[in-house]
Design brief:
This protein has 618 residues and is of the alpha+beta class. It is built from 14 helices and 21 strands. It has an 8-stranded antiparallel sheet with strand order 8-9-10-19-16-15-12-13, with no helix packed on it. It has a 6-stranded antiparallel sheet with strand order 6-5-11-18-17-14, with no helix packed on it. Strands 4-3-2-1-7 form a 5-stranded mixed sheet. Strand 1 (78-82) and strand 2 form a beta hairpin. The longest helix has 43 residues, at 421-463. It is elongated. The protein starts with a helix and ends with a helix.
């Protein structure tokens, strides 16, 4: 990679970041089939009366979603569900997911100084809490302090058991000790505008064990409402996937019609702690609410001005899914049958949760109504998301070019061959270098021709130093005479930019790299920086000033590239190139090690190419 190439890449990164930010707000649309009922959970249904016009009008009614200020934790029996991929704890009374551990991915290694850092943050929050004046501020700080104490208590417990460095299953949903926690699949029943939580289920099951021999099974919950009707909730689990089927059935055991009612089901707020716990940090990865309604993606539904306030938005139309999403994981509700509304809520503690609501038609005595919905709770693996056929894979954020070139699929193919994602990244970089080599040669040939003309161009500048127009005219004539294109060195490189961008976004966001080790003891997790030591430990500042080796090596190879590239005749460009290694070090220092490994390998290959080309033209 020569000097002009490197400069083109850095300047293009600015354009790329702006484009990528815009693109993420315009996630790709994908045609989907109108009928997805084949994925419905098989249940007994009884014919019900067609929805009358009166109830159709009720669909437009905006219900008031009330929530208790302090929701006490319900003591309930635990129901254990185990599959080859997950370990789940259900609440017998609430019918919710209280704990959800993924076996396939492990938490990142927790540094010993993380506990000390968290203790410092707890002390800071305590001081801020003591100085807080408003009740809202006190509540917000109290929540943050309780959350940090909860995270640290788990780390201290692991340290006491000698398991601080032992890889742990990632827990997407966890038991919590603060009152605002709402768990996934919490169900609500609305009757004539008033909503109540269904948290008095009865369940006879205590555990469900699935395997290849028993690929699926369900847990059944039964609740009796105040009006005498019955709600049956079935949660279906599959051994080979993260898709959970949920059935809500309303049975009219009374002697009168049940009307003007609806079911609601929630994503809960339990996904919030996931990546923060895995990294031992208290306030880290942002949780986003994203929905796909009327073939449009609704992202960032709340403005900055609504931070710290109770806000909710409702959306109607063709509801494909609504989800809570982090960088690597997802909690999505996917209606199997038509739903009437999505409600997205944010409270003053900035906890998010999404609801899906379906209007229940008039249910006559001794009849029932059934609603089916799926929940995908797991990693953003493109293959698994695409199987849902509802454009859910759009949430795997590889950017426009990453999706176009399908880099993640090539990376997974190389991993199957090598068994190591670090080696796969190196092989991918070599393949990219081979594919782009003709363009590299063309760029070098053009730049070499430009370099040979530099003495003549310098003479023209000295001869016509007082006439810029004449300099430009004579310079262009010189180019034409020698059949040199002044843009010939940059244009081939610009053609390579889409591939570089595709690699950049894929290696930065691919779930496949999370927790994967390249070199034990040095690069244990390709999704994180390759920190080997904290220099702050020498200054009694644990966790400060991480020492990351790969970015330093990358900057050194950038300097070596400059040594193998001809010096620029433009003093301003020469100064910019001297600053380039420092700039690249600053930009890449805290990037995932998988991404930096790609760039380092690319630099080394570029140096080898430069050496070969120079020897060839001697």
């Amino acid at each position: 990679m020569d000097r002009r190439t490197l400069l083109a890449i850095v300047l293009s990164l600015s354009v790329f970041l702006i484009f990528n930010y815009y693109y993420k707000s315009k996630l790709p649309k994908k045609p989907v089939e109108e009928s997805i009922s084949s994925r419905a959970v098989p249940v007994r249904t009884v014919p019900v009366e067609t929805i009358p016009a009166k109830i159709e009008k009720e669909k437009q009614k905006e219900y008031v979603y009330k929530e208790e200020e302090k929701k006490p934790l319900v003591e309930e029996k635990e129901i254990i569900v185990k599959t080859d991929l997950v370990r789940i704890v259900l609440g017998s009374s609430s019918g919710t997911i209280k704990s959800y551990k993924i076996k396939e991915y492990k938490e990142s290694e927790v540094k010993p100084n993380t506990i000390a850092l968290n203790n410092q943050k707890i002390e800071q929050l305590s001081m801020q809490l003591a100085k807080a004046t408003s009740e809202d501020q006190k509540e917000r700080l109290s929540y943050q302090k309780e959350e940090m104490e909860y995270i640290n208590a788990r780390l201290i417990s692991r340290k006491g058991q000698g398991k601080l460095k032992t890889p742990q299953d990632i827990e997407l949903v966890s038991f919590a000790n603060y009152y605002t926690q709402i768990y996934p699949l919490e169900s609500y029943f609305q009757a004539k505008g008033e909503i109540s939580v269904i948290n008095d289920f009865k369940c006879d099951s205590s555990r469900l064990l699935l395997s290849k021999g028993k690929p699926e099974g369900y847990v059944r919950f039964v609740a009796h409402l105040k009006d005498g009707s019955t709600v049956i909730k079935k949660i279906l689990f599959r051994n080979d996937g993260y898709l959970i089927g949920v059935t809500l059935e309303l049975i009219n055991n009374t002697d009168r019609n049940i009307e003007q009612t609806s079911f609601l089901i929630s994503t809960g707020t339990g996904l919030r702690l996931m990546e923060e716990q895995s990294r031992g940090r208290g306030r880290g990865v942002q949780l986003q609410s994203v929905s796909y309604i009327n073939d449009k993606v609704i992202k960032k539904p709340f403005s900055r001005g609504q931070k710290g306030r109770d806000v909710e938005h409702s959306y109607t139309g063709k509801i494909w899914w609504t989800a809570l999403s982090t960088k690597y994981f997802l909690n999505a509700l996917i209606p199997v049958e038509s739903a009437s509304k999505v409600v997205i809520k944010k409270n003053k503690l900035n906890l998010l949760q999404n609801y899906v609501e379906t209007i229940v038609p008039v249910v006559r005595p001794n009849q029932s109504f059934t609603f089916n919905i799926d929940c995908y709770l797991g990693p953003k693996e493109v293959g698994r998301l695409a199987k849902q056929k509802v454009n859910l894979e759009a949430l795997a954020d590889f950017g426009f070019f990453g999706n176009l070139f399908r880099i993640v699929h090539i990376l997974k193919f190389l991993y199957k061959i090598t068994g190591n994602y670090g080696v796969a990244i190196i092989l991918l970089t070599i393949l990219m270098s081979i594919v782009l080599f003709p363009l590299t040669m063309k760029s070098h040939k053009s730049m070499r021709a430009m370099q040979e003309l530099q003495p003549q161009i310098s003479e023209l500048k000295n001869k016509y130093k007082d006439n810029a127009q004449k300099i430009n005219k004579e310079t262009m004539a010189l180019y034409k005479k020698n059949k040199v294109n002044p843009l010939g060195g940059c244009f081939p490189m610009m053609l390579q930019m889409p591939l570089f961008f595709a690699l950049f976004t894929t290696l930065r966001n691919a779930i496949e790299l999370k927790g994967t080790c390249f070199i034990p003891g040095w690069i244990p997790d390709l999704s994180l920086p390759d920190t080997v030591f904290y220099l702050g430990a020498l200054m009694n500042k644990p966790g400060a000033y991480p020492l990351n080796i790969l970015p330093i090596l990358m900057s050194i190879t950038t300097i070596l590239q400059q040594k193998f590239t001809a010096q620029s005749a433009d003093p301003r460009q020469a100064k910019m190139m001297l600053f380039m290694p420092v700039f690249m070090l600053f930009i890449f220092y805290n990037f995932p090690s998988g991404l930096v490994l790609y760039w380092l390998t690319n630099n080394i290959l570029s140096i080898v190419q430069q050496v070969w080309i120079r020897k060839k033209h001697k």
